[in-house]
Design brief:
- The structure is a single chain.
- The chain is mainly alpha-helical and 334 residues long.
- It contains 14 helices and 2 strands; from the N terminus they run ααααααααββαααααα.
- The chain has a two-stranded antiparallel sheet.
- A hairpin with a 5-residue loop joins β1 and β2.
- α2 crosses α5.
């Protein structure tokens, strides 16, 4: 659709247009309906988690809210179709001026692109201009892994930050959780979503990852023993659907408890600030690779959809090798 020669100056609308479901901004009826369909598609076909759907909705809401001020009124599908590359760049510039992190802006613009692709596939609008806009260049971050010695120290010291009156089953739970995160390379959310029915059997465990995708993960004897010790002491009854890791009152363990545990441990043990629950996953992958693990196998173990994501760990190992080379080579200091 050709863009009008001049921008419209929107008069005060006779009635407020309906709000797009779950986004908190006003949109023309056709756009509100399209956003509702997009959210439903994310839930039912993409099988995105509720947290992901809400996060995507917020990112799109910020974009539509920008357009409302940029264009001077409520935004409809025809407005989206008429946008030029300069309009998208103005949105990116606004985020930069508002001091959004480049990673946040890149993610948000990826959501906007995805929404436009959805609209194009369903024949509601087409806008080629968005494909001509580059997202901000991101800093090349390398995962921060613990050394093997630091990981071993962490796993063997989970009780040093416990309260004096901490119950034995809570200490066993903390030890089992930390051992599982490092021993199987799980995300914290994956570990906390495990149920008693998914307790390791015959050296394997089924894990549900992002997008509800399931994968089979080998389990080390040390992990199995730590979980068994915790289960034997846990006072709360349950069945196969009961969460594996429980809080002191018997409900699902809050992620903040696990994050707080890691924070206390890194302070007590003098570990770097990067020693978070997710760092144990990075350490799992890095140590496997350093030990000769196959990159494709590590990809499967981590549940990465793309090999390029797993390849970041080759850079971690390369950085370690460079460090060893600089420290050990007789001419490295010259």
């Amino acid at each position: 659709m050709a863009r009008p020669a001049s921008r419209r100056v929107a008069p005060a609308p006779p009635a407020a247009p309906p709000a797009a479901a779950g986004t908190g901004f006003s949109a023309a009826p056709d756009l509100a309906a399209a956003i509702a369909d997009w959210r439903q598609w994310l839930c039912e076909e993409k099988r995105a988690s509720p947290h992901t759907v809400e996060a995507y909705g917020r990112d799109l809401a910020v974009f539509i809210g920008f357009l409302s001020g940029h264009l001077g009124g409520a935004v409809g599908l025809s407005d989206l179709e008429a946008l030029r590359a300069a309009d998208f760049r103005a949105y990116l510039a606004t985020r930069s001026n508002d001091n959004y992190a480049r990673t946040s802006t890149a993610r948000a613009f990826s959501v906007v692109r995805g929404f436009f692709r959805f609209m194009e596939r369903h024949g509601r609008l087409a806008n080629a201009a968005i494909h001509n806009v580059r997202t901000p260049k991101l800093p090349h971050a390398v995962p921060k892994a613990l050394s093997e010695a630091e990981a071993a120290l962490l796993i063997g010291s989970t009780d040093i930050v416990a309260l004096a009156d901490a119950e034995a089953w809570v200490l066993a739970r903390d030890a089992a959780l930390v051992t599982l995160l490092y021993g199987c390379g799980l995300r914290l959310g994956e570990a906390l979503s495990l149920t008693r029915g998914s307790v390791p059997k015959d050296g394997i465990m089924r894990v549900t990852g992002k997008g509800n995708k399931q994968r089979i993960v080998p389990v080390l004897p040390a992990v199995t023993e730590a979980i068994s010790a915790y289960m034997a002491l846990c006072p709360h009854a349950g069945d196969a659907t009961t969460p594996l890791f429980l809080g002191t009152r018997g409900g699902p363990l809050n992620p903040r408890i696990a994050q707080g545990l890691m924070q206390k441990l890194r302070l007590a043990l003098g570990l770097p600030e990067t020693a978070t629950p997710h760092a144990l996953r990075h350490s799992f992958a890095t140590h496997l690779l350093a030990g000769g693990g196959d990159l494709r196998a590590i990809q499967e173990l981590l549940g990465h959809a793309s090999l390029s994501t797993t390849q970041r760990y080759t850079e971690v190992d390369a950085a370690r090798l460079q460090s060893v080379h600089r420290m050990a080579h007789p001419r490295a200091g010259r």
